[in-house]
Amino acid sequence: MKLEVRSYMLDRRSGKNLYLQIIEILTEDLEHMPFGEQIATETELAERYKVSRGTIRQAIARLESQGLVFKIQGKGTFKGGHLVQHASFIMGNFTQQLLAQQMIPGIRNVSVKKEQADEIIASYLAIPVGADVWSVRRDRLANGVPINFSTGYIPTSVVSKLRASDLEMSIIDMLGKKFGHRVYTATNLCSATLSDKYVAKRLNIEEGAALMVLEFIGMNQKNCPVLYDKSYLIGNTFSLRIDQIISQ
After folding, report:
1. What does the angle CA 37 – CA 39 – CA 43 come to, to the nearest 5 degrees?
2. pLDDT (tens digit, 9 = 90+) per residue, 27-46?
3. Which residues contact 66 (CB under 8 A, 6 or more apart)?
4. Could you say which of 79, 103, 120 is where a domain stops?
5. Which pTM value belongs to this model?
6. Collapsing DSSP states into helix, strand and coil, what is residue 203?
7. In CATH, what number is assigned to the domain containing residue 59?
């Protein structure tokens, strides 16, 4: 469903740049939209406001730089916004964070295969290089829009058999409820990168788009790592929040 923006007349006598007026109108309309809802096309907006597509493109680019909208290649422009990641003393899983912000979580393109741990995976999971791990790849959605591509690694010594159908719940819930390996504590590492061709295709974004990389190392009650998960998050749909207690 596309946003039906209000048919405001632009004030062409005020001297105020037309694209700035369009930004103000669209920004107000976006406040009343749910995350992931599609807005009108550049052609439709240009016809509505009697301006060139270049003017509309300039306005959309400004909204995109502010994180208010994002583009999916070949599909259109959609309402954006920031999903807050709580990297503090308590951090809910991805599903819990979306639900807390009144968004509908989803998952697609789930694949599970056994592979051998490289040096990085082995170091995070405290296992020998070459040890068998389950590799779990999936695209995660908010209100039906892909915003996160994740690969989780679980030692086969923790879970001996794993199928894609086991991933009907979050990977953290699955470990605790199905396999008895509840994640009690976790370390999170955050960095930035640009999307390569593979990740861009998974998330329907342009190659070279900005991404946030979130690495998650989950520990069980015995403080042994049971999950290493690496997520690529579309840069203009996420922000990072860190809460601190400052000792005196």
Report:
1. 155
2. 888 888 887 788 999 999 99
3. none
4. 79
5. 0.66
6. helix
7. 1.10.10.10
